[in-house]
Structure formats: structure tokens, C-alpha cells
Design brief:
This protein folds into two domains: about 45 residues, no CATH class; about 60 residues, no CATH class. It has about 130 residues and is an alpha+beta fold. Strand 1 and strand 2 form a beta hairpin. The strands form two sheets. The chain has a three-stranded antiparallel β-sheet, with helices on one face. A two-stranded parallel ribbon has the order 4-5. Bound molecules: zinc ion (ZN).
């Protein structure tokens, strides 16, 4: 028996067992395989995307968590990020974790001065 992930023209995904791959081809061609959601018989094998999708979602969760942590524990210095990071690095202001925005130019300068900074992942939430 073979388990196939199938999809219909409306994008419903479902699983179905077939004795062989040929049996699937035959049954699908004769309209014997139908979508349990809408009854469509023009089904096809779904690409093995769900596995990949899960991995991507997990990664986005991790990035979102990192961002949440930073936003809840770090001080937001907004557009003054480069200046404040530099002051902290040279001991001109209280050392503390900060985050904010910097231009590509500012980031390059900071890295040139060997000031340790990390890019933050952009927000992936749709409510951003
Ligand atoms: Zn369907």
C-alpha cells in the first residue's frame, strides 16, 4: 500500500491509500478518487511541501522569539542606535543592551570600529 498526499483544484489536501502507484494513476484518471472536502475528482499528488513548511515556521518562531526577547529586555534607542552603540563601546555612557535602527552606512562604520552589533530579524508577524 502507498499513502499519497493529494490535492484538488481548490487546494484541499488529503491523504489516500493505494495498492500501487499504478492503481493511483488508474483510479485518479477514471475519477474514482475524489476530494473529501468538495468532491472534485481532478486530484493530483501534492508536492512534499508540508515538511518544509513546518521547518520554515519553526525558524520564524525562533526569530520572532529572539525579537520579542530583545524588544522586552533591551532599551529601544530608535534612530540613535549607531551613536549610542559607539558611546557604550567607548565607555561614554552606561553600558546596557540596546536596539534600534541604523543605516547600512552606520552599520558598516560600527563594524569597521569593531563595535559588536547584531542585525535583528525583521518582524514576520502579519500584524506588524
Ligand atoms: Zn477539494
Amino acid at each position: 500500500m502507498i499513502l499519497y498526499n493529494l490535492t484538488c483544484p481548490s487546494g484541499h489536501e488529503f491523504e489516500a491509500w493505494f495498492r500501487t502507484g499504478d492503481a493511483y494513476t488508474e483510479q485518479a484518471a477514471s475519477g474514482a478518487v475524489s476530494c473529501p472536502d468538495c468532491g472534485a475528482t481532478e486530484v493530483r499528488k501534492a508536492p512534499m511541501a508540508p515538511r518544509l513548511g513546518k521547518g520554515v515556521a519553526k525558524r520564524q518562531d525562533a526569530l520572532a522569539q529572539l525579537r520579542e526577547l530583545v524588544e522586552s529586555q533591551f532599551e529601544n534607542v530608535g534612530g540613535n542606535f549607531a551613536e549610542t552603540a559607539r558611546q557604550i563601546h567607548y565607555g561614554e555612557t552606561e553600558a546596557r543592551p540596546i536596539y534600534g535602527e541604523a543605516t547600512a552606512e552606520e552599520v558598516k562604520d560600527l563594524l569597521d570600529e569593531e563595535i559588536p552589533i547584531l542585525p535583528l530579524p525583521i518582524k514576520v508577524d502579519s500584524d506588524a
